Amino acid sequence: MPAHRRRGPAARRGxxxxxxxxxxxxxxxxxxxxxxxxxxxxxxxxxxxAPDSLAAPSGKGSFRLGAASAATQIEDSNPAxxxxxxxxxxxxxxxxRGAEFVGDASRGFSKALEDVALLREMGLDSYRFSMEWAxxxxxxxVIDEEALAHYDRLLDALVEAGIRPVVTLHHFSNPVxxxxxxxxxxxxxxxxxxxxxxxxxxxxxxxxxxxAEHAALLAARFGDRVDDWGTLNEPFNYLLAAYGVGxxxxxxxxxxxxxxxxxVPVLRDYLLAHAAAYRALAEADTVDADGDxxxxxxxxxxxxGDWVAARNHQPSDDPEDVEARDRMAYVYNHLVVDAVLGGxxxxxxxxxxxxxxxxxxxxxxxxxxxxxxxxxxxGDGGLVPVLNLTPCVNGLDFGACVPPVDPTFCVPAMRYExxxxxxxxxxxxxxxxxxxxxxxxTESGIATRVGERRAEVVVRALEQIERARGEGVxxxxxxxxxxxxxxxxxxxxxxxxxxxxxxxxSYERTATKGAEVLGEIARGRALTGALRAAYxxxxxxxxxxxxxxLERCNGN
Length: 556
Ligand code: FCB
What we know:
Bound molecules: beta-D-fucopyranose
Number of strands: 18
Shape: globular
Number of helices: 14
Structural class: alpha/beta
Largest sheet: 8 strands, parallel, barrel
Low-confidence stretches: 1-35
Strand content: 15-25%
Mean pLDDT: 91
Radius of gyration: 22 Å
Helix content: 25-40%
Distance between the termini: 39 Å
């Protein structure tokens, strides 16, 4: 049966709503914030030009269709990563933190070459993944050539399949020696076994140096096939989890102590590591593999939220909440890029950059945008020190959590709401704030066990991206998170983000409806009106069947 006829009642409801939205638009002839369907029927196809440069002016108007992953989340057992030590059960000598032991993850190391076939099957033109620093350099300055040979083979296979690699250097994980989660006090100061991590007065500069060396090594070995490099993944999000609340290794909790004194130096060092890596890549990558005039196109990826002003569990227009929302959006969505572009960090988080870091300037060729959730923020009772606000995170509701726009938008496995039009909102906002910076959606997706829901998320994301592009925002691609199910950090294996679902007994990968639909789009280089009618719009989605009381996902 053709895809557009295989619909459940919710998808039909979605189509009815999309149609209604289109008619309303046609009648009113005015732009609505929420509607995505253009004022024509049937829904027009959205065509995609060939993939091209992420950074050069010649790439403007091009579009990539890809998938993303990260090494720690997929690769087989690697005792040299901090996540291994952090999540390994106490009975086996680990720290027993997080929901589950990372163990063999999704066996994405031993199956890496086979997994290229999954990308191929969908006809994707690009794959964003990370190379595990701890695997390449398990001990300080000791390089594992076998690990490099593995990534070398993977790159060959990708290039042969016509799939452009986008390589992330640092995606939420460290070699243990960088900041040993078992010895966060770092009593004896930095040494080869423990550099004490970002933010440490003596260790921080050493970590930055190591990051640059690592970047230079990868560029020298792989620069002939890789042009697109991402230095950091979601700096603010990562640092909050790893150094702010201690949910990720190294497990430091600056937020509970001295936010400015402890957290800001970590952020400063992390950004300096980005700049050092940028320069190292630019110097050591000498081959212009994609012919865009630059051998290395270097960006970083940013976690962005669709933040809503809230009070007493409802959206609010109280100026106190609106200002709290703006402060949250600024710190979470803007501050890092402001600092890198301007060469100045807002070190007291007051909205005005004050700490001169001139080395940051000129170190961003493209910006990755990663969108997952809509969440409330209130100014009523500031849980977060200095910023004087309380966000709704992790379902923790101190009045900031708002009901989802539709109950089916809830993502119970992650306790947040996925609101597709939020992607348009953040792209428009970033496009307006950083008009010179090419954007690419390097991650977006949903934790679900329902293939139709994933297909809806794919189609709706592409519609929202098109809406932003139609209004002049330079967005050059969409990478679905994730290629297949994997280890979702502190949450363990329960959330299923994969286009392919993984059977954790046999490690077999099976295509979901999401993979079928993204594949149809990628192979045809078009999102057809039929697919839009079946999965698109902004109406209710197919529900997550086992989730009772879906409306509780936002903490309500
Ligand atoms: C992002 C991370 C990615 C994955 C998704 C669900 O914040 O970059 O590794 O965990 O969330």
